[in-house]
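Protein 1 of 2
SEQ + STRUCT:
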Amino acid sequence: PWDKLDVTTWSWQKVLGGEGAHGMIVLSPRAAERLTTYTPPWPLPKLFRLTKGGELIEGVFKGETINTPSMLCVEDALDTLKWAESIGGAQTLIGRSEANLAAVAAWVDQTPWVDFLPQDVANRSSTSICLVLTDDSGLSVEDRAGVPKKMSVLLDEEGVAYDINGYRDAPPGLRIWGGATVETSDIEALLPWLDWAFETVKQAELRDHNKG
C-alpha cells in the first residue's frame, strides 16, 4: 500500500538472492519534503545524507552513487529482474515460492518428528520456512535442543544443504529457504535427506544420553 508508506527499504540479497550489503530506498513525496525542511540536531553519516543546501539530492534516485558499489552487483540485480519478468513477473515468483512451502507442508503433515514453528498457518513464510522438532520426535526437550545445528552440519558436509540451522535467537529448529529462485524439485529432493539427518543425529543423541 504505497499510499501508506513514507520510507520503504529493502535488501537485494532477499527473495531474488542478490548481493548482500546493498539496499534500496523509496521515498514518498511527504518524506522527500520532510528531508528538505527538517535538519536533525545531530550529524548524519554521508551514506544517509539525501539533501544538500536544503534541496533533495535527486541524482541519488537517478543512478548516481553515494559511495562506489560494485557495478557487477548492479548488473546481477538487473539480470535477475529480467529473468523474473521473463517467467511472468511477481505473480509467478509468488507462485513458485508458495509451491515450495506446499511441498514442505505436505512432508510435515506425514512426518511426526517435525512441525512448523508458526502454528498459525497465516503466519508461515513461504520464503524463510521455519521448522521445529516436536514432542513426538522421540527426544526430550533437552536432548533435541542441539539436534537442528548438528543436522545442519551433517547436511553441509554431505553437500546437500547449507546454512539451514534456525536463527540464533529463535527456538532450536531448521530454516529452509523457499524463495522464488529455488526449484520445488530441489525442495522435494531435500526432504528425504532431512529424515536421514534427523535419524542419524537422533541415534547419536540417544547413545550419548544413555551413556550419561
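Protein 2 of 2
SEQ + STRUCT:
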Amino acid sequence: MTTDLYGEKLHPGNLGFCPRRLARITPWLEDYVNERKLPFAAVVVMRRGEVAYSSRYGNRDIEKQLPVLDDGLYRIYSMSKLITTVAALSLFESGSLMLDDPITKYLPNFADQKVYSNGNFENMELIDLISPITIHQLMNHTSGFTYGAFDPGPVGRALRKAKIDFGKTNEKLEDLVQRLSTTPLCFQPGSSWRYGVSTDVLGRIIEVITGQDLERVLRERIFDPLKMTDTSFSVPDDKVSKFCALYTRTTENPLKKLEDAESSRFRKPVIMNSGGGGLVSSMKDYVRFVEMIRRLGELDGERILGRKTVNFMMRNHLPGDMASMGQKTFSEMPMTGVGFGLGGAVLLDPVKSEIIGSEGEFTWGGVASTAFWIDPMEDISVVFMTQLIPSSSYPIRRELRVLVYQALTD
C-alpha cells in the first residue's frame, strides 16, 4: 500500500494540481519497486509551502522484509554538497570569505599543485597553474579536481594511488585534503567542468575559517535553526532501526545488497566530515532544507541566507551549459541546456534539455539515486529518496519531472 508520508489529508487541487493526474506518480513508483528495480521509493511534492503529494512504498531492507518508514534515514551522498555550499555562503555573507579568494589563502599547501597536460599515468606531463583555484571554482566544479573512484584517466589513477577517498570514515578531513594537494588537477581552473572533490575541499576551508569541525558548523548554522534533527555524518544507536540498507545493480542481480543498516560505515565512529558526500538525512529534514531555499533563505522565521545570496546561488555560474564545458551527460541526465550554479545544476533551456520544466530550476542528486529540485517560477520543491547505486541505473529523475509537471493546471 502506498502511504502518505505526513499522515495528513492532501488537497492538490487547491495547489494548482489535477489530483487524478498527480496520482500517476503512485503506479510509476510502485512499478519500480515491484519490478525489483528499486528496493523502495519515497516522494514528496511541495507547492507554495504545502504538501501536494507524498508517498512511500517498498522495503528499507528487502531480505529482512522491513518496510520503508516515514521517518527513515538515507545516505544522501552528493545532496550533502548543497548543504556545505550554503554553510560556506553564510560565511561569505559575514565577510569571512570572498568567492574570488584563492584557496591558498586558507590552504597554503596547494600553492605548488600542478596541472595534468598529457601522457599516461607513468609518464604524465605536468605544468604549472596559470592562476590559483578560487572558492567560486570549488562551488561550481570548475576547479580541476576530479573523483578518483569514477575517473579512469591518469589523474583519477593518481588520486587512487594517493588513497584520496572522502568516503573513508577513519581519517581526518584535514589529512586527506593535505594529501590531495600533492596530486595534479585535470585542467587549468576555470577552463572546464568536472565533478569531483571540490566540495570536500570547501568543507575543509570552512573548518579553517571557523576553527570548528564541519559537523558542528553545519549544526549551528543550518541543522539546529531548521530543526533538521536527523541529519549528520553518522547514525547513532537510537536511530539505527530507521536506517535503510544500501543496494546496487549488477548484471546478475538487479538489487544486490551492499550494506546492512547495522554494519554500514555510517554506523562506525566517523572521523571524516565529508561535505561532498558524507551526510545521512531524512525526508522531513531535506524537505525543510529545500523549502528554505525555495523561500529564498528563510523558513519558520529562521533566516539561513539572504534573499540576494540565494538568487545568486541559483543562477548559472558557467559561461554556457555544462555540455559546452565538456560534460555531455551526468548520471542519467543530458547536460545540454543545463548550467551549474553554486552547489547545484540550473535548467537554462527546457527545449534544449528535452524535458518539461522551468528556466531557473535548481537541482541535484546523490549516487544512491536520491534527488531534489526547486522550481522558483512554479513555487515547487520535490525530494525523492531511495538507496540504489549507481544513480545512472534508471531515468528516475527525468520521469518524475514529467509526472509532476504534467499534473499542473494553473
